[in-house]
Every structure is written in structure tokens, then in C-alpha cells.
């Protein structure tokens, strides 16, 4: 039905517009993707959550971000690296992809039972087993890629990949399912409102990270504005808000071309480059009505000519999405050629005589204004746009920004506006400050990755180690700050282990902070303790691991769980405390060898006996227990065998370097009966060994730190006499 | 976003979190010591699990013993005595969920205890005690498993020169802060300042243990010549996660000074010092200061009823980052 109109137009205007004969179908037009009415309920959204961070107020981190497949947190330390050449797993693309999520890990965290950590983390492997070479220990050696040997191209590509990953993580606009018959009067689609965070991220990407976009920056800005102009509506008037208003009225208007706002809306949409909307609105023009065609042929021809011109606007960009209007040109010469031709066509149309024949005043004025905008008439453009950001996007040149701002000064500043100001001013510090103020530590920590690649000045500024910051770079500082935010929450600290990954990517100070954090973990609950030790093992933090085991050991020992206490102290190789424990046990065993309560201690010594081989002290206690048992048997009358065993035990004990010196005399004193026995139980060499030990002991007694055992004063002389007599008898025997 | 973690009674006078912030010890005006615990580590609601009157007078300071030595706190009492209490459950005791017992009681002798802090050294646990007569005593734990046996290791006064002090010195308060770094290569050190009537006692000095001669030496003085006599209310040594210098906060009547302390001694064995900021904001006395675990944020509480958070910006300029005001007077 409209074909007639078009054909008509073409017969008259074909010399002006050599556009292909587009088979125009009324319902065929898609609108800028995210240009949308606010609908907070449409689909999953990115939620911003405030965490109880100890360090900085306003800690915003993106949460509840669905990542395909596995729960991201779980994947983090073990996920294969993303970076080209398989760099460390701490490369930005692999790690930053996992902003803390809530659901899956939250569940496992809350319901986790004690064995959970060891079974899921390292199958069949003790959590305190000797460390295997792990990905994460590699991560420490290559903290966060500094791109040492990377070709610049690869680096750009990698950063862009990283940026795209983050961008998609921040949420893609969800479109409402397209109905088969679209309402022609709906120019703006109901889609989910994008977030400022994503808008800010993409803005930084456009200016710093996307090398390709430098050539077609204006087009990138047009795209950006199409996506995010709605966000600016909160603080100032925008084309978007105007169109929203217009759409509301479209439903009720009968002769829309008589209506001033209709033409203003089209002008505005054209000024910011939303070609679809322009064309769609133009084709709502009354002259397309079947019953009108006869009377308004010329008028309709003009409307359609402008619509065709708009839809054929040359655009310099690598590609155009399907259904996007305009003609795409990849190189500047091609674009310039097409641009000149297109402008020529506009100029021709502008001067054509058909305007005189157009009787409808509003249409004539409206269309001519559109032509002026397309020709770049500044006044028309200023009229059509609402704020300087829109105007700037249009002009698309850095040094025009100031002018644009003067032309459309803002009363209130939107967070995105402030960010844009920093970017335009090429002031990295302002950009960072705005990121930090408006979007929180997550944004700063990650945006730095884009800022550094986009500008040498920024790279120097952000990577330079500064005395004022404690010898670290701004980049590391912001990453540390974000890591602390992550560390302050159980989900991102332990359950998903993201915080350690971030910390270890801070080359200078991250490890110390991780150590402090690990040291401050509670040890009372086994499950948390094992998890903490597992993190120590992953990052080869042996010393802190030993401290934690020490704390656990002392806690258990002092809270009546002696066996567990000794177990952890042995793991910690804490000789000092183990020796103290064996002394306590020795005293006790010595006093109560025949008592009933010995049974209780015997069990403990038995337990220690198997584990204690490597660590001194308790090994001795085990032998001492055997020795005491033999002595007991002698008392009970089972003489000869038991006596020989007792002598063997005694010699073993005295030879063993792990036997504390302070026990030598008590041991010998206990053995007086053996030493005095006739015929002698000890041969010459055995007796000499004991005499030597006694001599050593006499020397040691003169030292100030010697601790006198609790024995009768004549003990030493009694032992010496018994040994001398035994030596004599042994000589005679041999 | 504020959430109440714990509700203390009116007579609570001082409090201290343990190393992992899972337990809170609170000292009261009437000499009662209370311990608050959370039911499980993920919960952040704390309820009292043990309470007992441990002194006859007000407890004005509680300090946790480092966790390697058990769950124990020292209480400093207004009558000048102090005591160490420990949670122990032995095999011979009846199963009791939280059995806190007295390990050690230090009676009042010549002077009252003003402050007491435990410092972790590699070989042993050291305890620094500052007295009202200006004495500083360093005690050492003899048995790592028993908090009963303490031995006096050193005794000195908070002065750089060794000139004899004539007349009686009277100190109202003292503040000790250990260097929190646990590095094997480093000797134990701490900073100490007094609030006394003798100017040369007051200024904060950094003391370091000289292993070779088994003695403590003053290695730095944190005060400008014109401020030397200023009474010190509180000192706090910041954790260092990799800075090429240490950071120490010193609160006097003039404000909170932030000091940088060099890491390498000069030929005299002294460390270089630089005052980088003087922070004003508190009206009246600063009672207590604490650093966060990265040493980037300082929290201070004062008689004006406010807690203030201080940070340095990218240019190294210190400023007040936030203020937490008490809601009721």
C-alpha cells in the first residue's frame, strides 16, 4: 500500500536521491538496542551491594552476577588461565571475571560441614600435606601481568578481551520478546535499564582501551549515548526523556504532523544519531495515509526522501549491527567520498523546488530543519539536543567539549558527566577519583587496567611506586583496597577464596596483608582452621601456617583436648612447647607410674609414640614409658628378662639425643637397683657411657641455666658410687 | 548500615577484641571482667559467656595475651594492681564451658601499673609494664604453656640520657604500643609515652632490644624539640605490610601526630624520624588509637565521644575520612 507512495516519490525525486528502492515495510525497524523505558522488573539485574568493609566507606562491589556454568568462586584458584600464552591464573581476565556472587557459594558456605573443605578442595589429600606445586604458587611468582615480553598488539587485544568480559558480566540489556506485529506507535522499546556502572565502564573502554574505536570515536559515542542517555535523565533533560514523553502522546494524537513536539522529537533523535527512531517517526507522518496520498503526493515524497537520506547516512565504523540504519564505511577515504556525495544530495534536496509545492507548513519546516541538522548547522543541533553530553557526542571532538559545555551548562552533575569531564580533561587522577567516589573500589581496581593501556602518562602515573603510598603504585594501592573489601566478608574471603587471589596479585604488599589476614583467622573450629591452612598451602606460606598450627595446638591443649593439641604442635614443629609438654608428662609419669590415672596418660603417650619420631621430646617419653614398665616388672618379681629389658631401655634413653639433659639424673636414680645388682647387668662399655653422661652433667650443673631436678641431695653421689662399683664388677666379669 | 554487635552495660569502662575479633573482653567500673563470644564464627552477635568480679576497683585496661599463649587477658586495675586471667579446661576439672582462672596477680608495690602490653618475640613472650613512678619493667614468660611464671628481664625509665632523676615523679597515664611486625630478622621494639609532671619522661620513645647485650635501647624520639614536654595520651604503632618505613601515631594535647620511622639505623644506632602530619579534630583528650590491619587507616576515640577515622590520600596528605558520633550522651 505504501509502495504507491514510494513509487510516486521516486518518479519525481529520483534525480535527487539515488537510493536503492528499499522495500519499505512498516514494521521492519529495530530501535537502538537499549534505548528503553524504565522497567526494573525486566529480567535479572546487576545488584550493587554494600559490604561491611573495614577500610573504606562506600565499598560497592557487583554481586549476584550470573556467570555461565560453574559457580565462579569455586573456579577461581584452579581455573585454567585465560591470558595469551597461559600466563598466571591471576591475570585480570581470569580473575576479575569473578566478582563475588552470592547464591551458590553462599549455600555451600552456610551448609558446609567439617570434611567439606578437604573433600572438595583436594581429594584424598590431607589439608596439611606437603605442598604440591600449585597454580597459585605460580601466581605469586607472576603476580599480575606486567606485559614484559608482550607485543603491544597482543596486549591491546588482551585488555580488550578483559574489558569485554567485564562488560558482559555487568549485564546485557535484555530485550522484551519481539511481537510479530509491532505496534507502529511504539518508538521506544521496553527494555531493562542499564546500570551506571556498565555505562562508566564502557565509557572508559571507549576512550582508553578500545584502540580500534579511536578512528571512529564519534560513532562509538553515538552508540554509547544510545545505550545510556536514559541514565542521564535522572539529573537533566535528555533526548531520551523527550522521546519518552512523545511516545506517551503518540497514542492519542490524530494528525501528528501538526504537532510541534513530533517534529522536535524527530530533530532530537536525528541530532544524536538515532536514525531508526527518526525514520520510524517520519513514517508515521499523515501523508502516508491511504486516503491522503492523492492530495499530498509531493509532501509525502519529501518526507520519504528525507527518511531515505537519513537511512543512508554514511557512517565510519567497522560494522553495523543487523537492522541498523546508515551505510557503513571502514576507511576514511571511502567514508569521506560517500559523505560528500550524501551531503551533495541533501544540498540538492534543500534547494529543490518541491518545497514550494509543499503546503503543509509544519512538515516543510520540520523537514528542512532535519536537513539543516544533517548538514551540521550548529544552531539547529543545539536546539535539538538537551545537555552538553549529547551535544558533545554529536560533535565528537575533544576540544569541542568545553564549547559544548558552555552551550549547555548543567545545573546538577550526573556521576557519568563527572567521569566524562575527567576523561576529556585527560586527567587520570580525576577519572580515578570519580570512579572511586561514584562506583566504588571494584570499579577503580579494574578500570586501572584500561587506563594504563590507553595512555602512557596514565601508565607512568599508575605504575610508579610512590614513597607517599608506602612504596607501592596507585594501581597496587587500589587493588589492595578492593582486596580488603573482599577480605572483610566471609563469602569472598574464605568460601570463594577470591580475596587471596586479589591480594597475591599485589606484588609488593599483598602477601604481607594476606599473612596478617590468615593469622587473624579463628582456630577453634576445625573446618575454618583447615580452610585457612589450605590457603597457606596454596600460596606456600609455610611460616604463617606453622604459626596458625601453633595457636591451634595451644588452644586445644589448654581446652582439655590434649591429643589434638599435641597433633597440631607436632605439625607446627614447635619443639619448645612439645618439650614442655613432655616434661609435664614426664613429671606426671614419674610420679604416677603405679597409679590408676597413669592409664589416661599412657593412652596419650601411645598416641604420641607413633607421630613423635620426627620431633624430639615425646619420642623420649615413649621410651621412658617402656623403661618404667620394665622397672615395675622387676619390682613385681619377674626379674631376669625384665631387668635386661630395663637396662636396654636405659641405655637407649641415655644415648638418645632427644632425651632432655635434666632427666639424666632422675633416670639414673631410678635405675639404682639395676646398677647395684649382682652379677652386674651392665657391661664395661655401657657403664662407661653412663659415667660419661654423669661427667657431662657435672659440668652442666655449673652453668647458671641448669635446673636442679627434684631429687634427694645425695642422689648424684649415690648414682656415682653405684656406677663405680658396677664398673669394677663388670671388669671382673669380663 | 550500622549494626549492633554487642550491648555493653553502663558501667563498662574498657574493652578489647582478641586476635581474631571473635571474643571481646570488657572491664567494668566495679572491677568486673566479662567475656563476650559469638555463637559461631559467621555470626556477629556477641553475648556474655563469662563474668566475674576480679578486682575491687575499676578495671581501666584489658589486654589480650598473643594467641600462641592461650586465651588469656591481663586486667589493669585503678588500685594499681594487675592480674592475668586464662580460660583453661583441664582433665581434672568438671566439664565447664568457660572456665577462667587467675594465673598471676601483680600486687601494688612501689608504684601503680599504668599500662601493660604483651609483645610477641620469637623465643618468648614479653610483657612491658609502665608504672606511675615512671619505671618501665620488661617481664618474660618462663614456660610457654604456663602464664604463671614471669621473670623480670629489664627495668628502665623512658628517658634518652642516663642522668639521675631527682625528686618524685608522678605519672597519670602511660601508653605502650608494640611493633606489630613478626619478622624473624627484626629485634622486638615498642613505643612508649607518658602523661606525667616530668617533661623529659613524656615524649614518646622507641625502644629496641639489643640481643648482643641483652638490654633495651632508645633508638628514636618521636617529638620535635619544641614539643618535647607534651603529655602523651596514646600511642599506636601501625602494621607494616611492606612500606619502606614504619608509621606511628602519637596523640598529645596538640593533636594526633603521624610519624614516619626509618628502618635502618644510622651509625649511632638511631632511627630517622619524620613528623608527616598533625591531625586535629578531637576536642579534649584522645583516649585510644587503633590501626587497621593494613596500616592505612587510623581510628581514634576521645573524650569528645567521637571515633574518627584518618587516612592519607594519594599525595600522602593525612585527613579525617569519617566520624562516628555517639548517639546518646
UniProtKB/TrEMBL annotation, chain A:
<protein>
    <recommendedName>
        <fullName>Nuclear pore complex protein Nup85</fullName>
    </recommendedName>
</protein>
<keyword id="KW-0653">Protein transport</keyword>
<comment type="function">
    <text>Functions as a component of the nuclear pore complex (NPC).</text>
</comment>
<dbReference type="InterPro" id="IPR011502">
    <property type="entry name" value="Nucleoporin_Nup85"/>
</dbReference>
<keyword id="KW-0811">Translocation</keyword>
<dbReference type="Pfam" id="PF07575">
    <property type="entry name" value="Nucleopor_Nup85"/>
</dbReference>
<feature type="region of interest" description="Disordered">
    <location>
        <begin position="65"/>
        <end position="138"/>
    </location>
</feature>
<feature type="compositionally biased region" description="Polar residues">
    <location>
        <begin position="110"/>
        <end position="121"/>
    </location>
</feature>
<keyword id="KW-0906">Nuclear pore complex</keyword>
<dbReference type="GO" id="GO:0031965">
    <property type="term" value="C:nuclear membrane"/>
</dbReference>
<keyword id="KW-0539">Nucleus</keyword>
<dbReference type="GO" id="GO:0031080">
    <property type="term" value="C:nuclear pore outer ring"/>
</dbReference>
<dbReference type="GO" id="GO:0006406">
    <property type="term" value="P:mRNA export from nucleus"/>
</dbReference>
<dbReference type="GO" id="GO:0045893">
    <property type="term" value="P:positive regulation of DNA-templated transcription"/>
</dbReference>
<dbReference type="GO" id="GO:0006606">
    <property type="term" value="P:protein import into nucleus"/>
</dbReference>
<keyword id="KW-0472">Membrane</keyword>
<keyword id="KW-0813">Transport</keyword>
<keyword id="KW-0509">mRNA transport</keyword>
<feature type="compositionally biased region" description="Low complexity">
    <location>
        <begin position="76"/>
        <end position="94"/>
    </location>
</feature>
<comment type="similarity">
    <text>Belongs to the nucleoporin Nup85 family.</text>
</comment>
<comment type="subunit">
    <text>Component of the nuclear pore complex (NPC).</text>
</comment>
<dbReference type="GO" id="GO:0017056">
    <property type="term" value="F:structural constituent of nuclear pore"/>
</dbReference>
Automatic annotation (TrEMBL), chain B:
<dbReference type="GO" id="GO:0015031">
    <property type="term" value="P:protein transport"/>
</dbReference>
<dbReference type="GO" id="GO:0005198">
    <property type="term" value="F:structural molecule activity"/>
</dbReference>
<dbReference type="InterPro" id="IPR015943">
    <property type="entry name" value="WD40/YVTN_repeat-like_dom_sf"/>
</dbReference>
<keyword id="KW-0539">Nucleus</keyword>
<dbReference type="GO" id="GO:0031080">
    <property type="term" value="C:nuclear pore outer ring"/>
</dbReference>
<comment type="similarity">
    <text>Belongs to the WD repeat SEC13 family.</text>
</comment>
<dbReference type="InterPro" id="IPR001680">
    <property type="entry name" value="WD40_rpt"/>
</dbReference>
<feature type="repeat" description="WD">
    <location>
        <begin position="279"/>
        <end position="311"/>
    </location>
</feature>
<protein>
    <recommendedName>
        <fullName>Protein SEH1</fullName>
    </recommendedName>
</protein>
<dbReference type="Pfam" id="PF00400">
    <property type="entry name" value="WD40"/>
</dbReference>
<dbReference type="GO" id="GO:0035859">
    <property type="term" value="C:Seh1-associated complex"/>
</dbReference>
<dbReference type="InterPro" id="IPR037363">
    <property type="entry name" value="Sec13/Seh1_fam"/>
</dbReference>
<keyword id="KW-0813">Transport</keyword>
<keyword id="KW-0853">WD repeat</keyword>
<dbReference type="GO" id="GO:0034198">
    <property type="term" value="P:cellular response to amino acid starvation"/>
</dbReference>
<dbReference type="InterPro" id="IPR036322">
    <property type="entry name" value="WD40_repeat_dom_sf"/>
</dbReference>
<keyword id="KW-0677">Repeat</keyword>
<dbReference type="GO" id="GO:1904263">
    <property type="term" value="P:positive regulation of TORC1 signaling"/>
</dbReference>
<keyword id="KW-0653">Protein transport</keyword>
Amino acid at each position: 500500500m505504501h509502495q504507491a507512495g514510494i513509487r510516486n516519490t521516486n518518479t519525481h525525486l529520483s534525480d535527487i536521491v539515488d537510493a536503492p528502492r528499499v522495500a519499505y515495510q512498516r514494521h521492519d525497524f529495530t530501535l537502538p538496542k537499549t534505548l528503553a523505558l524504565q522497567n526494573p522488573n525486566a529480567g535479572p539485574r546487576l545488584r550493587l551491594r554494600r559490604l561491611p568493609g573495614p577500610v573504606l566507606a562506600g565499598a560497592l562491589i557487583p554481586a549476584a552476577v550470573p556467570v555461565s556454568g560453574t559457580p565462579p568462586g569455586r573456579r577461581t584458584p584452579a581455573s585454567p588461565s585465560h591470558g595469551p600464552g597461559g600466563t598466571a591464573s591471576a591475570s585480570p581476565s581470569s580473575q576479575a571475571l569473578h566478582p563475588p556472587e552470592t547464591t551458590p557459594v553462599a549455600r555451600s558456605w552456610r551448609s558446609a560441614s567439617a570434611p567439606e573443605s578437604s573433600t572438595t578442595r583436594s581429594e584424598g589429600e590431607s589439608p596439611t600435606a606437603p605442598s604440591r606445586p600449585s597454580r597459585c604458587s605460580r601466581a605469586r611468582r607472576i603476580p599480575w601481568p606486567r606485559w614484559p615480553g608482550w607485543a603491544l598488539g597482543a596486549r591491546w587485544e588482551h585488555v580488550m578481551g578483559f574489558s569485554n568480559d567485564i562488560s558482559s558480566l555487568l549485564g546485557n540489556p535484555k530485550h522484551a520478546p519481539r511481537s510479530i506485529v509491532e505496534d507502529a506507535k511504539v518508538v521506544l522499546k521496553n527494555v531493562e535499564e542499564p546500570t551506571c556502572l556498565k555505562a562508566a565502564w564502557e565509557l572508559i573502554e571507549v576512550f582508553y582501551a578500545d584502540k580500534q574505536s579511536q578512528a571512529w570515536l564519534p560513532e562509538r559515542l553515538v552508540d554509547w549515548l544510545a545505550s545510556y542517555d536514559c541514565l542521564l535523565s535522572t539529573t537533566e533533560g535528555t533526548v531520551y526523556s523527550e522521546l519518552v514523553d512523545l511516545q506517551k502522546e503518540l497514542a492519542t494524537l490524530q494528525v501528528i504532523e501538526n504537532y510541534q513536539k513530533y517534529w522536535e522529537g524527530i530533530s532530537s533523535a536525528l541530532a544524536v544519531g538515532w536514525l531508526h527512531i527518526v525514520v520510524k517517526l517520519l513514517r508515521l507522518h499523515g501523508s502516508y495515509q491511504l486516503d491522503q496520498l492523492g492530495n499530498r503526493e509531493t509532501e509525502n515524497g519529501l518526507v520519504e526522501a528525507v527518511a531515505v537520506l537519513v537511512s543512508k547516512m554514511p557512517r565510519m565504523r567497522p560494522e553495523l549491527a543487523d537492522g541498523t540504519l546508515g551505510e557503513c564505511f571502514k576507511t576514511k577515504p571511502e567514508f569521506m567520498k560517500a559523505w560528500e556525495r550524501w551531503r551533495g544530495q541533501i544540498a540538492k534536496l534543500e534547494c529543490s523546488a518541491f518545497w514550494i509545492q509543499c503546503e503543509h507548513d509544519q512538515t516543510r519546516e520540520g523537514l528542512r530543519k532535519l536537513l539543516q541538522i544533517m548538514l551540521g548547522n550548529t544552531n539547529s543541533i543545539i536546539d535539538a539536543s538537551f545537555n552538553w553530553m549529547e551535544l558533545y557526542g554529536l560533535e565528537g571532538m575533544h576540544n569541542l567539549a568545553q564549547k559544548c559545555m558552555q552551550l549547555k551548562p548543567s545545573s546538577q552533575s550526573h556521576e557519568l558527566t563527572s567521569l566524562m569531564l575527567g576523561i576529556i580533561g585527560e586527567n587520570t587522577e580525576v577519572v580515578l577519583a570519580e570512579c572511586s567516589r561514584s562506583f566504588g573500589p571494584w570499579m577503580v581496581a579494574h578500570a586501572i587496567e584500561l587506563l594504563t593501556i590507553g595512555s602512557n602518562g596514565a601508565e607512568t602515573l599508575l605504575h610508579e611506586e610512590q614513597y607517599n603510598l608506602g612504596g607501592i603504585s596507585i594501581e597496587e594501592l587500589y587493588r589492595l583496597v578492593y582486596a580488603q573489601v573482599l577480605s572483610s566478608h566471609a563469602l569472598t574471603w574464605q568460601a570463594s577464596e577470591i580475596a587471596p587471589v586479589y591480594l597475591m596479585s599485589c606484588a609488593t604488599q599483598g602477601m604481607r596483608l594476606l599473612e596478617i589476614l590468615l593469622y587473624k583467622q579463628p582456630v577453634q573450629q576445625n573446618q575454618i582452621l583447615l580452610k585457612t591452612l589450605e590457603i597457606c598451602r596454596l600460596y606456600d606460606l609455610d611460616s604463617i601456617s606453622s604459626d596458625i598450627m601453633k595457636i591451634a595446638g595451644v588452644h586445644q591443649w589448654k581446652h582439655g583436648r590434649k591429643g589434638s593439641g599435641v597433633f597440631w604442635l607436632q605439625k607446627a614443629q614447635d619443639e619448645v612447647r612439645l618439650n614442655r609438654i613432655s616434661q609435664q608428662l614426664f613429671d606426671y609419669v614419674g610420679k604416677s607410674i603405679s597409679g590408676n590415672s597413669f592409664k589416661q596418660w599412657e593412652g596419650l603417650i601411645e598416641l604420641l609414640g607413633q607421630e613423635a619420631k620426627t620431633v624430639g621430646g615425646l619420642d623420649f617419653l615413649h621410651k621412658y614409658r617402656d623403661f618404667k614398665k620394665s622397672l615395675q616388672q622387676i619390682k613385681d618379681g619377674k626379674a631376669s628378662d625384665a631387668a635386661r629389658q630395663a637396662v636396654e631401655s636405659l641405655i637407649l634413653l641415655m644415648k638418645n639425643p632427644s632425651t632432655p639433659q635434666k632427666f639424666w639424673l632422675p633416670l639414673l636414680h631410678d635405675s639404682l637397683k639395676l646398677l647395684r645388682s649382682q652379677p652386674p647387668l651392665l657391661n664395661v662399655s655401657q657403664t662407661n657411657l653412663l659415667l660419661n653422661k654423669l661427667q657431662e652433667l657435672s659440668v652442666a650443673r655449673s652453668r647458671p641455666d641448669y635446673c636442679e631436678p627434684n631429687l634427694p641431695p645425695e642422689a648424684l653421689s649415690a648414682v656415682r658410687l653405684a656406677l663405680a662399683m658396677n664398673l669394677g664388677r663388670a671388669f671382673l666379669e669380663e | 548500615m550500622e549494626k549492633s554487635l554487642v550491648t555493653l552495660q553502663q558501667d563498662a569502662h574498657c574493652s578489647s577484641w582478641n586476635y581474631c575479633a571473635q571474643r571481646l573482653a570488657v572491664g567494668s567500673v566495679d572491677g568486673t571482667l566479662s567475656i563476650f563470644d559469638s555463637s559461631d564464627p559467621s555470626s556477629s552477635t556477641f553475648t556474655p559467656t563469662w563474668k566475674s568480679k576480679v578486682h575491687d576497683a575499676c578495671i581501666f585496661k584489658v589486654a589480650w595475651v598473643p594467641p600462641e599463649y592461650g586465651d588469656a587477658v591481663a586486667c589493669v586495675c585503678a588500685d594499681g594492681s594487675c592480674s592475668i586471667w586464662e580460660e583453661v579446661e583441664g582433665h581434672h576439672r568438671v566439664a565447664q564451658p568457660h572456665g577462667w582462672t587467675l594465673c598471676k596477680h601483680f600486687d601494688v608495690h612501689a608504684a601503680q601499673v599504668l599500662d601493660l602490653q604483651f609483645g610477641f618475640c620469637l623465643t618468648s613472650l614479653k610483657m612491658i609494664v609502665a608504672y606511675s613512678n615512671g619505671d618501665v619493667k620488661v617481664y618474660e614468660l618462663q614456660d610457654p604453656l604456663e602464664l604463671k611464671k614471669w621473670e623480670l628481664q629489664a627495668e628502665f625509665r623512658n628517658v634518652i640520657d642516663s642522668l639521675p632523676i631527682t625528686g618524685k615523679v608522678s605519672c597519670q597515664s602511660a601508653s605502650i604500643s608494640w611493633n606489630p611486625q613478626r619478622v624473624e630478622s627484626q629485634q622486638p621494639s615498642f613505643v612508649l609515652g607518658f602523661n606525667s609532671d616530668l617533661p623529659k619522661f613524656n615524649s614518646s620513645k622507641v625502644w629496641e632490644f639489643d640481643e648482643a647485650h641483652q638490654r633495651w635501647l632508645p633508638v628514636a624520639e618521636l617529638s620535635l624539640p619544641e614539643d618535647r614536654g607534651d603529655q602523651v595520651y596514646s600511642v599506636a604503632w601501625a602494621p607494616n605490610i611492606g612500606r619502606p618505613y614504619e608509621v606511628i601515631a602519637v596523640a598529645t594535647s596538640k593533636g594526633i601526630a603521624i610519624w614516619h620511622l626509618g628502618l635502618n639505623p644510622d651509625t649511632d644506632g638511631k632511627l630517622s624520624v619524620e613528623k608527616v602530619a598533625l591531625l586535629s579534630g578531637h576536642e579534649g583528650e584522645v583516649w585510644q588509637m587503633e590501626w587497621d590491619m593494613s596500616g592505612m587507616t587510623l581510628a581514634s576515640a576521645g573524650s569528645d565521644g567521637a571515633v574518627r577515622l584518618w587516612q592519607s590520600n594519594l599525595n600522602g596528605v593525612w585527613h579525617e575520612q569519617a566520624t562516628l558520633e555517639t548517639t546518646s550522651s
